C-alpha cells in the first residue's frame, strides 16, 4: 500500500532499533534524528542532507545508511520526534480541551518551524502524530458530532493553527519581533500607507484602532474562538434536531 514509503513505515511503526549485545555503538538513530533536527531548527528543512548530518556527527555518509535509508525516512522520523507526545487531556468540556490542544500544537510549530513544510503532501504519519489526532478526536467524542464532523472539525482547527504559525514563521525570518507577527506586519503596512490613507481609508482606520485598543497579535486566539463558537452552535443545533427516522425495510412480496 505504501510503495516507496515502506521504509518510513518500518522505521516509524516497526521498531526503530533492535538491541544488540556488546558495547553501545558510538552512532545511534536517536543521535542522527536529533542532529538533523538541530540543523532544521537553525537553517530550515533545506539544510538537512545525509551528507550534512554525517559531517555534523563526524561519521561517513555510508555509516548513516545502516540506520536510515535516506532523507525521506529521516524527515519522517524528525517529524514524529519533534511532535512528541500530545498534551495530556485537559479537564473540563470539549471546548477547553480543544483550545488547549490547539495552543500546544501552535507551540510545537513555533519550536520547529520546519514542521510546517515537512507535514504536507503524501507521507507516512508516525505514532506520535496520530496520537495528536486521537487526543483531539477524543475531546469531541461526546459532543454528538458524527465521525466525519469530528474529523472535519480537527482539520479546520489544525488549518487555522498552521496558517497563523506560517505567517509568524515567514515574518520571523527577517524580523527580530517574531513573537509579535501582527506588530511587524502593522509597521510595514503603516509605512506603505503614508500619504495614501485616502485610497485605503478602511485599512488605515483598522490599523489605527488596533493600535489604540492594543488588540493586535490575537489572530490565533481570535480565530480559534470563532471556530469553537461555530462548533458550539452546530453541536447545539444537532442536540435539538429530532433523531432521523429509521428506514423501514421493504416487505417481501406475497404470493
Automatic annotation (TrEMBL):
Residues 49-68 bind DNA. It comes from the Bacteria. GO terms for biological process: negative regulation of DNA-templated transcription. Keywords: DNA-binding, Transcription, Transcription regulation. The keyword Transcription regulation applies. It holds the Pfam family TetR_C_1. GO terms for molecular function: DNA-binding transcription factor activity; transcription cis-regulatory region binding. Residues 26-86 form the HTH tetR-type domain. This is TetR family transcriptional regulator.
Amino acid at each position: 500500500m505504501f510503495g516507496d514509503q515502506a521504509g518510513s513505515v518500518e522505521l516509524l511503526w516497526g521498531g526503530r532499533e533492535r538491541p544488540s549485545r556488546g558495547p553501545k555503538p558510538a552512532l545511534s538513530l536517536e543521535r542522527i534524528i536529533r542532529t538533523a533536527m538541530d540543523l532544521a531548527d537553525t537553517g530550515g528543512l533545506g539544510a538537512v542532507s545525509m551528507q550534512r548530518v554525517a559531517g555534523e556527527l563526524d561519521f561517513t555518509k555510508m555509516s548513516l545508511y545502516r540506520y536510515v535509508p535516506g532523507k525521506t525516512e529521516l524527515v519522517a522520523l524528525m517529524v514524529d520526534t519533534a511532535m512528541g507526545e500530545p498534551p495530556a487531556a485537559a479537564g473540563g468540556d470539549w471546548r477547553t480541551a480543544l483550545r488547549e490542544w490547539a495552543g500546544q500544537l501552535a507551540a510545537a510549530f513555533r519550536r520547529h518551524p520546519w514542521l510546517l513544510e515537512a507535514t504536507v503532501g503524501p507521507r507516512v504519519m508516525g505514532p506520535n502524530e496520530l496520537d495528536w489526532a486521537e487526543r483531539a478526536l477524543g475531546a469531541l467524542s461526546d459532543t454528538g458530532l458524527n465521525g466525519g464532523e469530528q474529523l472535519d472539525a480537527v482539520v479546520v482547527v489544525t488549518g487555522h493553527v498552521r496558517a497563523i504559525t506560517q505567517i509568524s514563521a515567514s515574518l520571523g525570518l527577517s524580523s527580530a519581533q517574531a513573537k509579535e507577527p501582527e506588530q511587524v506586519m502593522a509597521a510595514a503596512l503603516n509605512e506603505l500607507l503614508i500619504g495614501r490613507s485616502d485610497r485605503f481609508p478602511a485599512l488605515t482606520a483598522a490599523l489605527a484602532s488596533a493600535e489604540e485598543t492594543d488588540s493586535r497579535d490575537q489572530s490565533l486566539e481570535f480565530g480559534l474562538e470563532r471556530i469553537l463558537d461555530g462548533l458550539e452552535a452546530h453541536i447545539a443545533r444537532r442536540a435539538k434536531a429530532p433523531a432521523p427516522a429509521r428506514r423501514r425495510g421493504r416487505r417481501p412480496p406475497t404470493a
